[in-house]
Amino acid sequence: MKESTTVPGPLKMAVTLATALAGGGLFMVLGLPVPWLLGPMIATLIGANLNKQYYTWPGALRNSGMIIVGYTIGLSLTAPALKEMAGQLPSMLLLTGLLLLFCAGIAVIVSRISGMNYKTVLLGSIPGGLTQMIVLAEESEDVNLTVVTVIQVVRLMMIIICVPLLIFSPLFGPGTGSGEAMPLVTAVSPSFRELFPNFFIYAFACTFCAVAGQKLKFPTAYLLGPALVTSVLQLSGLTGPVLPDLLLNAAQLMIGVFVGLLLDPRRLNNKLVTLLLAVLSSVVLISGAYIMSLLFAYFDKVSVSTALLSLAPGGMDQMSLIAHEVGADLPTVAGYQLFRTFFIFFAVPPLFKLVFRRKKREASATG
Fold this sequence. Notes:
mainly alpha
């Protein structure tokens, strides 16, 4: 009987893709944040838990999506962005470090209250991006991927909803940054014709570095490999074409489906408590970022709007769009967001592995 009910692979892929497209389309119609990542993730999560035998998604598709995202990250490392980051490097390093220590402290409290694994809560609390932290969680031992994803998704949703409400509230006046709003890369989606011929060079270089990085056990290799090689090629003078929205949305879908199928709500103990703690920790994190932004605004003589958008632990694209709308200093916001993103990409994975590897050795030695 079991053999007669086996679902063919192509049918599984078709059902999975149809579910993902439906989820992304619904999120887009409702105007929800990052619709082509969260929509497919939640839709396939629900579908797979209703009838898992109809759902499958190869890891190669997820990796392809990560290479595309890594390429777009590398494109943001332009010479002006690097110059902006270099000029404020001490301030960026200090405030980013304080924010990460604050997140680590929140993780300690949540871990003790909930009884959850500290490593799991820490990965859920670090504002390094949903995709990156999930990938790191996959590569780490003794980590509940479902809990990490839930905490990261709740944090992302809270920040994308709450920060704009704060910025547009009477608590904030209009931005008083330098006001020379640099053009947003995402304002106009380029055509596929504009990709060639440089697209082939970048595609080969990104794929090669992603695979090589994975072989060398590089942390989050399918993101960092393409990001690094793209920034190097771009700074050397080879223009990197901006990808059309269709490709970027497809990349998010590839990653979102894979993550959705990895999640297992049955592994989430005390669901209500976990969700409540995720919301409360996100509120505390936003409050901490606001307090630090007041200090930043005072010492660096920027508007509070600029300071908060620079330190808000959300995505660079969303924060930059809001900065443009309120007239905040967009280069400062983009520079701080970019610095934190790359600092977490490069520093957190090796530090994380080093600290917990040492703790594991100490535990085995005392045991």
